Amino acid sequence: MRIISKFHDYYDCCQDPSDKVNLYVRHTKTYEGYTGGGFHSGCNLFDPIIRFNLIGFCGKIYPCCEINVAEPMKQKNSSAAPKRSSTFIYDIDKLIEFYEPFELMKRMGKNKFRYRPYGYIEDVINFWKRVNGGETLRAINRAKKAFVELHTPCFVIYKKEEHCSNKENQLLDADCCLEDYRFAKVFSPHLAAQEIEMYLFGVLGSGQREKIPPVSNNDLIEAKGFDLKTSFRKAKQK
Question: What is the pTM of this model?
């Protein structure tokens, strides 16, 4: 599989640049009408930002929780915005382990306002358990249809902002950059490239393939080494 794209993704190193048959033209497009993403932040610059995304990859949906926290300031009383770093979690057990200290603070009644964004993780965990339990959810069923409707092997459903209506704020990016969501935690580069190639040119059959031009019967006859005038003449009867 050869990839034609304006951006680099983490599995691009496994493509075959000499492949002229299986071409994956990767161009990110944004669509509306899908739900499943979440966004929650605090009122302070140092409060965490919690994002919940649905990653669609080769026919399956992978819940992803992004936790963006502010790094400690080197200088006190600085007016500059703090640097932030994100952690992406694809395992519900790790998410529960991450949330345990804040759940304990919640039970003890300490720092309710400051740790309020972490309370959204509890809703994420409950939703995640319903997904893993095989419960029929409208958002998941709608997301699974996007593979065929949009002819894409990968996408992400997310919410842009917190204080907006749910329908207008839910977006889907088809043919997205999976490196932005640290998807290598789920699939290695070689395995991701292999899965995309099999799904794109096998299940979807929507890859950019070179069309074989039609060949006439006469050209096929000559290609096999026959002559049009003498090879198929009937023998003269004596």
Answer: 0.72
